[in-house]
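A favour, since you know our structure tokens better than I do. Just paste the record in under my message, thanks.
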Amino acid sequence: MDKVVATALEAVADVPDGASLAVGGFGLSGVPNGLVQALYERGVTGLSVVSNNCGAMESGLAVLLAAGRIARVTGSYIGANKEFARQYLAGELEVEMIPQGTLAERLRAGGAGIPAFYTPAGVGTQVADGGLPWRYDGEGGIALASPAKEVREFDGARYVLERGIRTDFALVRAAKGDRHGNLVFNRSARNFNPLAAMAGRVTVAEVEELLEPGEIDPDAVHLPGVFVQRVVALSPEQAADKKIERRTVSVSRAEEAVSG
């Protein structure tokens, strides 16, 4: 089955207001910027987003966040996104913070058809006991708090029950993809992308290099096409547009000798 769609706008044309999205990426690495921009251009709003973070440096999900298009975020990291923090503390945004490993496993579990699992992460904290602020009232108080979760003991240790995550759609970015939806991710861009792709009922992948079926060695496939419904090929310019969050330049040996 040829899953290639001509444009990003066409690929997300049926995403409605209020949809839930699993979005790949970690910081600026492996973020499906083209698909996010297409959603922005369509004017979709009221979105519930599941992603490690909510964009950075005015790219990725930060585009939708700044426009007020996101109603809820399930993630692990607010970080240096000042607008994310502002909306959360002002009561404009509902936020469910989850331990990073738990978020990854919840996405994987949902994609694998596992409704729930037990993990030791969060036991003895508000993650398990409840009370984490999901929404503030804008005046420093908590308008909505997380509920308590089931905790059970196995072999003398306590574990908290976490639910698998399924979303209406998933948006991911891959280095290579073929027309059947088989994907290959490059290094650190293989972060939350495979997991987000598994969790979506309809998964859309933007790929930097589109290949024909059979051109990817089966042993090199990171995510099989069964999890992907649509593939969009990026232009060379889009594929090369990769921002750097923090640029670090090392001191040369000659400079070290002079300074020393």
